[in-house]
Design brief:
Layout (H helix, E strand, L loop, with lengths): L37 H28 L3 H7 L9 H20 L24 H14 L1 H4 L4 H4 L1 H21 L30 H7 L9 H23 L1 H37 L7 H32 L4 H30 L3 H31 L2
């Protein structure tokens, strides 16, 4: 008669707990040894990569196309097949800002490609040289709002000068078409230049930043080391603004350095906004009796979607610009896809808020607008603070 022999019991090498599987249920240590041949290590690494990749494939499509799905799955306890909310948000945040930084290029624009718009066709309707000069005055006046913005006008100075050059060239061409050979157009002084391009603007005696940098900061209720750091920050802020105002290679180097520092500070800025956004949701939905952690998960998935959308918008914009000279019809199609994605972003957030918190449409829309307004204000404040912090370093 055959007899069954019981196999020997295995014990955890770390805590000596009897094992019931490949992992110790007491301390979590694996039964497999780390001392193994190299080809086994490669196999384990490939398995881990494929496992993570599988979770990404289960996470990104619903994150982009199914508002609130991942959040509700997480609340229901079905979490293993998806990437954790903080991890997916953080990775997409880094990728989105990295792609945006690359898209900005060596000649960054603060407002984007359409920041400094000029209408070179404004002179076609002019019938006399005087009308050409009047049209030039009007177009140059349109550049003033950008030029007068603090710090931003300095960073966009090269773009403003390029726009002004195009306007003067178009005006000169129209005057030549009208038969006027005495091309005496308005110079920078009579065109109303001010701010970053006015001589000595950065050295005005009443400049508050200059006055702050000339003497040490002394706030009585702050420790001395903080006052010293504030003094150094004010000095660096003044130096950076002077570099941006100087023009030439020095201004280009300062602009590139500041843009790089700004993009490196944006991920930390967004991490600061996450708990504030979750707290805002907690206040708005105070009577829904949800934990703060639940609102934080909503905030993580919302921001992960926004960063994924931003990444796709940057990629579509780059592809559109690359394809425009070669396949204009395909570039136009990518433009429509980008527009659809931009429209989908606010709609997605509204549907997500409706599905997660399960309130009627009137109350959902009201709270959606309230949260959006408050969050936009917080975002503007934090980004402004981050911009000033970048100038001070």
């Amino acid at each position: 008669m055959n007899e069954l022999t019981e196999a020997g019991k295995l014990y955890c090498a770390n805590c000596t707990t009897p094992l019931e599987g490949e992992f110790c249920h007491h301390c979590g240590q694996s039964v497999h040894s780390v001392l193994k041949p190299v080809h086994h290590m490669l196999e384990d690494g490939m398995d881990m990569f494929l496992h993570v990749d599988g979770r990404i494939l289960h996470t990104l499509p619903p994150l982009l196309a199914k508002p609130g799905f991942l959040t509700l799955e997480y609340f229901a306890g079905r979490r293993q097949r998806y990437v954790a909310p903080f991890r997916v948000m953080f990775v997409l945040c880094l990728m989105a800002f990295f792609a945006a930084h690359l898209a900005v290029g060596e000649r960054p624009m603060v407002f984007g490609d359409d920041a400094v718009q000029v209408d070179v066709d404004a002179f076609k309707q002019a019938r006399t040289p005087a009308e050409v000069d009047q049209a030039l005055q009007r177009e140059l006046a349109h550049l003033q709002p950008v030029r007068n913005l603090p710090a931003v006008g300095k960073m966009a100075a090269s773009d403003i000068q390029e726009a002004e050059r195009k306007l003067r060239k178009a005006a000169a061409k129209r005057r030549a078409e009208l038969g006027d050979t005495s091309i005496v157009l308005l110079g920078p002084a009579t065109a109303g230049t001010s701010g970053a391009n006015r001589p000595g603007a950065a050295h005005r005696p009443d400049d508050p930043i200059k006055l702050l940098a000339q003497k040490p900061v002394q706030i009585r209720w702050l420790p001395d080391f903080i006052n010293q750091r504030l003094t150094r920050a004010a000095k660096r802020l003044s130096d950076n603004l002077d570099a941006l105002d100087s023009g030439g290679e020095r201004a280009a180097d300062a602009q590139e350095r500041l843009i790089s520092q700004l993009f490196s500070a944006l991920p930390q800025t967004m991490l600061l906004l996450l708990p504030l956004f979750a707290l805002l949701l907690k206040v708005v939905y105070l009577f829904r009796r949800r934990l703060y952690m639940e609102h934080l998960i909503v905030a993580l998935h919302s921001h992960a979607f926004l960063f994924l959308s931003l990444l796709l918008v940057v990629v579509l914009t780059a592809l559109k610009g690359w394809l425009q000279p070669h396949a204009a019809w395909l570039a136009q199609g990518l433009g429509w896809v980008r527009l659809a994605l931009l429209v989908w972003m606010p709609v997605y957030l509204l549907l997500m808020q409706k599905r997660v918190y399960r309130q009627g449409w009137p109350m959902t829309i009201f709270k959606y607008l309230l949260v959006g307004y408050c969050y936009s204000f917080l975002l503007g404040m934090v980004l402004a603070a981050g911009f000033v912090w970048t100038l001070a370093h």
